[in-house]
Design brief:
The chain has helices spanning about 10-15, 15-25, 110-120, 130-135, and strands spanning about 5, 30-35, 35-50, 75-80, 85-90, 100-110, 155-160, 170, 185-190. The protein is of the alpha+beta class and about 200 residues long. It has a single domain, classed as 3-methyladenine DNA Glycosylase, Chain A. Strands 1, 2, 3, 4, 5, 6, 7, 8 and 9 form a 9-stranded antiparallel beta sheet that branches. It starts with a strand and ends in a 9-residue tail after the last strand.
Length: about 200
């Protein structure tokens, strides 16, 4: 069974966003909350850049909402969408150069009973197969916006101690009106935990 190690270092995130996005596949998202340990393998991501990406929150410049994207790489950028859902992103590239990777889906590993309780479902494949489902299953909310993911704590991402080989599928991003043609969505082939298009 896949376990995890220390958080990914800041230098992992201080690189091209598209490369970081692809390399986040297979990594382990770790959530500590009120004595519970929740973990999942990242199986689907999307990359978002700054001024050259109309689909990015940072496309029109710095705002109160997107300021975390302009900060240090390796931090959680969490926003509220459709008036009901949170989405988890990881900031990338250099300080002042806004970019982030949306964590779209994960394969549940540890703390599954707690995830089922928070998601109000018993279907394993339906626990974390979408960005809003993932944050609900892991109880990730706006309070973690700006959280440093390079340090052990309430939330971080690590390498699996026993990594598995997999094939990567590359497609255009989904659920957006602009920038659809960019092939910046990556997911693990044949994973039943990838979001439904």
């Amino acid at each position: 069974m896949c376990t995890h190690s220390d958080p990914l270092p800041r230098r992992f995130y201080e690189r091209d966003t598209v490369s970081v996005a692809r390399e986040l596949l297979g990594k382990v998202i770790v959530r500590h909350l009120r004595g519970s340990l929740l973990k999942g393998i990242i199986v689907e991501v999307e990359a978002y850049r700054g001024g050259d990406d109309p689909a990015s929150h940072a496309y029109r410049g710095l705002t109160k909402r997107n300021q975390v994207m302009f900060g240090e790489p390796g931090h959680a950028y969490i926003y509220f969408t459709y008036g009901m859902h949170y989405c988890l992103n990881v900031t990338t590239e250099k300080l002042g150069q806004p970019a982030a990777v949306l964590i779209r889906a994960a394969q549940p590993l540890t703390g599954i009973d707690r995830m089922k309780k928070w998601r109000k479902t018993d279907r394993l494949e339906n626990l974390t197969n979408g960005p809003a489902k993932l944050t609900q299953a892991l109880s990730i909310k706006r309070a973690l916006n700006g959280h440093d993911l390079t340090k052990k704590g309430k939330l971080y991402i690590s390498r699996p101690t026993n990594p598995e080989t997999f094939s990567v599928v590359i497609t255009s991003r989904i659920g957006i009106k602009t920038g659809r043609n960019k092939p910046w969505r990556f997911f693990i082939q044949n994973s039943p935990f990838v979001s439904k298009q």
